[in-house]
Specification:
The complex is a heterodimer of chains A (about 450) and B (about 550).
Chain A lengths: L1 H17 L4 H4 L1 E9 L7 E9 L2 E6 L9 E4 L4 E4 L1 E6 L29 H8 L2 E6 L7 E9 L6 H4 L7 E5 L2 H4 L15 H34 L14 H10 L4 E6 L2 H14 L3 E6 L7 H7 L2 E4 L17 H7 L4 E3 L10 H12 L3 H6 L3 H7 L16 E4 L10 E6 L2 E5 H27 L1
Parallel strand pairs in A: 1-4, 1-5, 6-7, 9-10, 10-11, 11-12, 12-13
Antiparallel strand pairs in A: 1-2, 2-3, 5-14, 7-8, 8-9, 14-15, 15-16
Helix pairs in contact in A: 6-7, 6-8, 10-11
Chain B lengths: L1 H17 L14 E9 L7 E9 L2 E6 L9 E4 L3 E5 L1 E6 L12 H5 L5 H4 L15 H8 L3 E6 L6 E9 L5 H4 E11 L12 H28 L10 H10 L5 E5 L2 H13 L4 E5 L8 H7 L3 E4 L9 H4 L2 H10 L4 H7 L4 E4 L6 H13 L4 H6 L3 H6 L17 E5 L8 E7 L2 E4 L17 E7 L5 E10 L2 E8 L2 E11 L2 E10 L2 E12 L2 E8 L3 E9 L3
Parallel strand pairs in B: 1-4, 1-5, 6-7, 9-10, 10-11, 11-12, 12-13
Antiparallel strand pairs in B: 1-2, 2-3, 5-14, 7-8, 8-9, 14-15, 15-16, 17-18, 17-24, 18-19, 19-20, 20-21, 21-22, 22-23, 23-24
Helix pairs in contact in B: 6-7
The chains are: A alpha/beta (about 450), B alpha+beta (about 550).
C-alpha cells in the first residue's frame, strides 16, 4: 500500500508541476545590485535579494541567480521593505462609521472589503504593501478592523493578511462625544470624556454577565446530557453578537486600537484596560503621547501617529512636529500612518520629517514605516524588514526613500510585482494612443 | 351564473356614476372558450408546432397540438400570421407597487424616536397589500408580451415580501398567483442616525436578526410543546415575519448592488443555510461566476447595464465607465447563460416595461440567444417560484397565459396582437399615430366636463400636466377621485381613474383630443362600455 501511495503522490506532484500548479515554488526572482535598506541591520550597498515564491530566501552581495530565475537589475536604486500603513480606511465599502449605536464591536470591516477600491493601487504607487484598515472613530467601541496585503486585483478574501490578529477600534474624546456632529438627530450619551469611559466599562460588565449566563447554560446542558433524558436540555440563552464582540475584547482575542489625542484620557483608558486585562496595543494619532512616554513604554502601548498634522480641532492642539521623535527616543513604538488615501502615497516624506524636525536617525525613521507598524499589527514575524524567511514585500525607489525628491518605482507583494512605474507609464501611453486613434474613427462613423 | 351577476353589478354602479343607460352588448365578452388555429406555437415543452391549434377554456389551456378538434363553443382566432408563445414573466420588479408615502416628521426624527421603517426593517411589508394593478398598466406590459410579474418592495434591509400576479384582472385577488413568496434582503442602510446606518452595520444586523429569528422560532415551538418549566419567548412581529425565511422554509432575495454584495450574500446564505435568490442589481454576476456555480445559486438578472460606483470602470472616470457600460455589462446575461447558471430576467433598475424590453434586447445583441432570453422570461422564473406546473410553457392544464405575436417575440418592434392572461383575452391595437409625440398643449387647470348620454352629468376636473405626464383629480357628486399616470401626446390626452363605489373598484379610461380651450373624447369601462364627453376650461 505504502509504495503505491508514494507513487501516486509523486505522479500527482509531477503532474502539478508540469501543469504549472506550483508556480510559487518554481519562480525565483533575483533583485540585483541595489542599495538594500534591510531595516533589521545595516544597509547593503550593491546588494542582492533572492526571492523564491512569496518569500525572501537570501540577502547579500554577489548572489548567483538560480537556473530559470528572473533577474531584475536594480541599477543601484534603493530597495526597502514595503511600507505598512497601520491606520487606514481604504478598501472599506460604505460608511466607515456605524453611527446608529454607541458601541458596535459586532460590526466588522472584513464583511465589507472592496478589493476594487482604486486606493489599493494608489497605495502601491507609494510603496505601501500592507494596511490595517478599520472602523472610524464615532463610537467608544467601534467595529473590528482588518489587516490587508495589497494584492491588487485579487478578491477580498485573498487580500486579507491572514496571520494578523483581529482588532477592535476604540475612540476617546470629541468624536465619540459627537461634539463634531451637527444637524438632525438627538443628542447621544455620552457627552463627556468621563461618559465615554463609563460607557465602555458598563458594556464590559454586561459582557461578563453574558459570558456567565452562557457558562451556566453549558453546565446545565452538560448535567442534562449526563442525566440521560431525566432532565430536559435547557433552552440556550439568546445569542448577542455585540456582547460576544466585547467578550472577544476581554479575552484578548481582539487587539485594541484606540483613537485618542489627550494624555489624560490615554492614561485613564490604560488603567481601565489594565483592570480588565484588555490587550491595548496602540493609540491612534496619540498626539499628546510625548507627554506620557514612560507610561506608554511601561504598558507596552505604541502610537500610530502623524508627522506634522495637528490643530484641526481643540483636542489636537497640544503637539509639535517633534512629538513622534520624542516618543521614539524614549522607547515608545511609533508608527507613521496616514488615516488618508492621499497621505498614504507619500508616507516616506512624512517619515523624513521626523528626521528633519525631531532628529531621529534615518534608520529609526524608516522603522516607523515598516517594522514598528508591523509590530503594532502583530505581523512583524512576516513583514517589516528585509530578512531571509520574511515575505517578499518590497519597494524600489530611485533615490533614498527619505530624499524629498524620491519616487517609488516598483512595489512587490509576496514576490509578485503589483506596481511597476515604467510599465504603468508605457501602458498608459499605449491606451492614450489607442484612444487618439479611435477618435477620428468615431467621427468618420458619425458622418456615415 | 356568478359571472353574469358580477357583470350586472358593475353596470349598475357605472350607470349610477354616469347616469347613462348602457346597452348590453352581444355575448362576445362572456365567452370563455377560444381556439387559435393555424398558428405557429412555441410551446417550450417540446419543438414548436408549425401549424397548430391552441384551445383555451375557463382560464386554462385545454389542449394544444397540430391536429386537434376545435370545440364547437369556441370563438376561433385565425392564427395564420401569428406565433404563440408562453406569456413572459418579470422575474422581479417593483414598478407595480404603490407604497404609501409617509411625510417626514422632523420632530420625531430629531427626538430620535425612530420606527422600524426608518431603519429599513419591514419584513412584514407585503407587496400584495400595495400593488397597483389596472388595465392601463396591463396594456404597457401586454404589448411587450408580459403576462405575469413578481413584485417586491426593494427599499431598506428587510425590504418586504413579494407577490406574483397574472396581468389578467385589475382585482388583485383574482390576479394573484402567489402571496408572500420571497423576502427581500437589501444592503442599503438607513440615512438616519439609527442602527444600522452603514453597510458593515447592515451585515452585523443581518447576522443578529437571522440568528434571532431562528432562535425565536425554536423557542416558541418548544414552549408550545413543553410549556412546563420553560419561560415563553417575548413576542416580536418582526421575528415572527422573518422566521419562515430565516429557517429556509421560504426563499429570500438578496438585492445585490455589485459583485461584492453577491459574494457577501453567498457567504451569508451558506452560513445561515438560507434558501435564496441573487438579484443582480449591479449586473456584475459575470464577475462571480465560479462562486455562483459552486453555490448552485439562482440569479435574477437585471438589464439596466449601469456600472456600479464601486466598480473599477466607474472609479476610472466617465470615459471608462461609458465604455464598460457599452462593451462589458450588456454581456452579463450571455455570460451567465454560457456558464449554465440558472437565471431569470428582472425589471429592477429599469423604469418601465419598455426600458425592460429594450434592456433584454441589448442582452440579445450582446450575445444572448433568443431561446436563452425566452427561457429566462418563462420557464426559469416559473421554476424559480415553484410554479412550473402552472406556468412557463404551453401545455394542457397550465394557466392560459399566452402571447400571440405577428412575427417573433423578443425583437425590436414586437407586434403583439393578443394576450391571454388567465384565459382572459386582451386585444392590442397598433399604436395610434399621435402616440409618443411631444405634447402640443398644456391642459393644467380646472375644466368642466359634461358626460353625454342618459341624463348627462357635469363634473369638474383639475389637471396637472408636467411635460407629457398627466395627473389630477375629478370632483363628482359621489366624491373626489385622484388619478396619476396619464399622458399627453400631441394634442391627445389619456388617463386612467380607479373609482371605488359601494365596495366595487371600477377602472375608467378617459381619452380626448384638445382643441384650444375645449376637449372632446370618450370614457371606457372594462374595454366595452363607451360614453362620449366634452369639456371646456374654466377661466381663471
Amino acid at each position: 500500500m505504502k509504495p503505491r501511495i508514494a507513487a501516486i503522490g509523486i505522479c500527482a506532484a509531477l503532474l502539478l508541476s508540469l501543469s504549472g500548479w506550483l508556480p510559487a515554488a518554481e519562480t525565483a526572482i533575483l533583485l540585483k545590485n541595489g542599495q538594500i535598506i534591510t531595516v533589521s541591520g545595516e544597509t547593503i550597498t550593491g546588494g542582492d535579494i533572492l526571492v523564491q515564491g512569496t518569500k525572501i530566501v537570501k540577502v547579500g552581495k554577489g548572489l548567483p541567480a538560480p537556473a530559470g530565475a528572473e533577474v531584475i537589475d536594480l541599477g543601484g536604486r534603493w530597495i526597502m521593505p514595503g511600507s505598512i500603513d497601520s491606520h487606514s480606511h481604504i478598501a472599506v465599502e460604505g460608511e466607515v462609521n456605524e453611527m446608529g449605536a454607541l458601541l458596535t464591536p459586532e460590526v466588522d470591516c472584513k464583511d465589507v472589503i472592496n478589493p476594487q477600491d482604486i486606493n489599493i493601487f494608489y497605495a502601491l504607487t507609494g510603496g505601501v504593501t500592507s494596511v490595517h484598515t478599520m472602523h472610524g472613530s464615532a463610537n467608544p467601541i467601534g467595529g473590528r478592523g482588518i489587516s490587508l496585503k495589497l494584492r491588487w486585483g485579487k478578491s477580498a478574501e485573498e487580500l486579507i493578511f491572514v496571520e494578523a490578529p483581529l482588532t477592535s477600534k476604540w475612540a476617546l474624546g470629541e468624536n465619540p462625544k459627537r461634539s463634531n456632529m451637527t444637524g438632525a438627530g438627538p443628542a447621544r450619551y455620552p457627552r463627556t470624556r468621563m461618559g465615554v469611559e463609563e460607557s465602555i466599562r458598563d458594556e464590559f460588565e454586561k459582557a461578563k454577565d453574558y459570558m456567565r449566563t452562557w457558562a451556566e447554560y453549558e453546565k446545565k446542558a452538560k448535567a442534562a446530557r449526563e442525566s440521560k433524558g431525566k432532565n430536559p436540555p435547557p433552552l440556550p440563552p439568546k445569542k448577542d453578537f455585540r456582547l460576544e464582540g466585547i467578550a472577544d475584547i476581554l479575552s484578548g482575542r481582539l487587539w485594541v486600537r484606540c483613537h485618542a489625542y489627550q494624555s489624560e484620557e490615554m492614561l485613564s483608558i490604560m488603567r481601565l484596560c489594565r483592570e480588565y486585562g484588555v490587550k491595548l496595543v496602540c493609540f491612534e494619532h496619540g498626539l499628546e503621547g510625548y507627554r506620557i512616554t514612560n507610561e506608554l513604554v511601561q504598558y507596552g502601548v505604541g502610537v500610530s501617529t502623524f508627522a506634522d498634522f495637528w490643530g484641526y480641532k481643540w483636542e489636537a492642539y497640544n503637539t509639535m512636529p517633534q512629538a513622534a521623535a520624542l516618543c521614539a527616543k524614549r522607547g515608545v513604538l511609533v508608527a507613521i500612518s496616514s488615516d488618508d488615501s492621499e497621505r498614504m502615497r507619500h508616507l516616506f516624506n512624512d517619515a523624513a520629517k521626523t528626521v528633519r524636525f525631531g532628529g531621529v536617525t534615518e534608520d529609526e525613521a524608516l522603522r516607523m514605516l515598516t517594522i514598528n507598524p508591523a509590530k503594532i499589527m502583530g505581523v512583524d514575524r512576516w513583514v517589516g524588514t528585509i530578512e531571509p524567511g520574511k515575505d517578499a514585500d518590497l519597494a524600489v525607489f530611485n533615490r533614498h526613500p527619505l530624499d524629498p525628491f524620491t519616487v517609488c518605482e516598483m512595489t512587490m507583494v509576496d514576490g509578485t510585482v503589483y506596481f511597476d512605474r515604467a510599465k504603468y507609464r508605457e501602458e498608459r501611453k499605449k491606451t492614450e494612443e489607442e484612444e487618439k486613434k479611435k477618435e477620428p474613427e468615431k467621427k468618420d462613423g458619425g458622418e456615415v | 351564473m356568478p359571472h353574469r351577476t358580477r357583470y350586472r353589478l358593475f353596470l349598475f354602479f357605472l350607470s349610477l356614476i354616469f347616469l347613462v343607460s348602457l346597452p348590453l352588448r352581444s355575448g362576445q365578452d362572456l365567452h370563455h372558450v377560444w381556439a387559435v388555429k393555424d398558428a405557429r406555437i412555441v410551446t417550450l415543452a417540446g419543438p414548436p408546432i408549425e401549424k397548430g391549434i391552441l384551445v383555451i377554456r375557463d382560464g386554462l389551456i385545454e389542449a394544444v397540438g397540430a391536429a386537434i378538434p376545435i370545440p364547437k363553443d369556441a370563438e376561433v382566432i385565425d392564427g395564420a400570421k401569428l406565433t404563440v408563445y408562453p406569456g413572459l414573466m418579470d422575474g422581479l420588479g417593483q414598478s407595480l407597487l404603490k407604497l404609501p408615502e409617509e411625510k417626514m416628521d422632523m420632530t420625531r426624527i430629531s427626538s430620535g424616536d425612530f420606527t422600524d421603517k426608518d431603519r429599513g426593517i419591514t419584513p412584514g411589508l407585503a407587496a400584495f397589500d400595495h400593488v397597483n394593478l389596472g388595465k392601463a398598466v396591463f396594456e404597457k406590459y401586454h404589448k411587450l408580451g408580459f403576462v405575469a410579474g413578481h413584485v417586491m418592495p426593494d427599499r431598506g434591509v428587510f425590504t418586504g415580501r413579494s407577490a406574483l400576479f397574472s396581468f389578467s384582472d385589475p382585482d388583485k385577488n383574482k390576479a394573484l398567483l402567489l402571496k408572500d413568496v420571497c423576502l427581500g434582503i437589501g444592503f442599503s442602510p438607513s440615512n438616519f442616525l439609527v442602527y444600522p446606518n452603514s453597510l458593515m452595520g447592515v451585515h452585523a444586523y443581518l447576522k443578529q436578526a437571522l440568528t434571532d429569528a431562528v432562535y425565536f422560532d425554536q423557542a416558541s415551538s418548544r414552549w408550545l410543546k413543553e410549556m412546563k418549566g420553560l419561560t415563553r419567548p417575548e413576542h416580536s412581529p418582526n421575528l415572527e415575519a422573518l422566521a419562515g425565511y430565516a429557517t429556509a422554509a421560504k426563499p429570500v432575495i438578496f438585492l445585490c448592488r455589485n459583485q461584492h454584495d453577491v459574494r457577501r450574500s453567498l457567504s451569508l446564505a451558506a452560513e445561515y443555510k438560507l434558501n435564496y435568490f441573487i438579484a443582480d442589481l449591479g449586473g456584475e454576476a459575470f464577475e462571480v461566476i465560479p462562486e455562483l456555480k459552486m453555490a448552485k445559486a439562482r440569479v435574477l438578472c437585471t438589464v439596466a447595464f449601469k456600472a456600479p460606483g464601486s466598480s473599477l470602470p466607474a472609479q476610472k472616470g466617465k470615459a471608462e465607465r461609458e465604455r464598460a457600460e457599452k462593451e462589458i455589462y450588456p454581456k452579463n446575461p450571455a455570460r451567465l447563460a454560457e456558464a449554465a447558471i440558472p437565471f431569470a430576467f428582472s425589471s429592477l433598475g429599469t423604469d418601465d416595461p419598455k426600458a425592460f424590453a429594450e434592456g433584454i434586447q441589448k442582452a440579445i445583441e450582446a450575445g444572448l440567444s433568443k431561446e436563452q432570453a425566452l427561457e429566462a422570461l418563462t420557464k426559469t422564473p416559473a421554476t424559480f417560484l415553484g410554479l412550473d406546473r402552472a406556468l412557463g410553457t404551453i401545455e394542457a392544464g397550465k394557466i392560459a397565459n399566452v402571447v400571440l405575436v405577428e412575427g417573433e417575440l423578443l425583437v425590436k418592434e414586437t407586434k403583439v396582437r393578443y394576450v391571454f392572461a388567465d384565459g382572459n383575452r386582451f386585444e392590442l391595437k397598433e399604436a395610434k399615430p399621435g402616440e409618443g409625440e411631444k405634447p402640443t398643449v398644456n391642459v393644467s387647470g380646472k375644466w368642466e366636463m359634461t358626460i353625454e348620454g342618459g341624463m348627462g352629468m357635469k363634473l369638474t376636473v383639475d389637471f396637472v400636466q408636467e411635460e407629457a405626464a398627466l395627473s389630477g383629480k375629478m370632483t363628482t357628486p359621489f366624491g373626489v377621485f385622484d388619478f396619476t399616470g396619464g399622458a399627453v401626446s400631441g394634442n391627445n390626452l389619456s388617463f386612467e381613474m380607479n373609482v371605488s363605489v359601494g365596495g366595487q373598484d371600477i377602472d375608467l379610461f378617459f381619452s380626448a383630443t384638445v382643441e384650444g380651450e375645449r376637449m372632446r373624447g370618450s370614457v371606457v369601462q372594462g374595454g366595452a362600455e363607451t360614453s362620449e364627453f366634452t369639456a371646456k376650461r374654466i377661466p381663471g
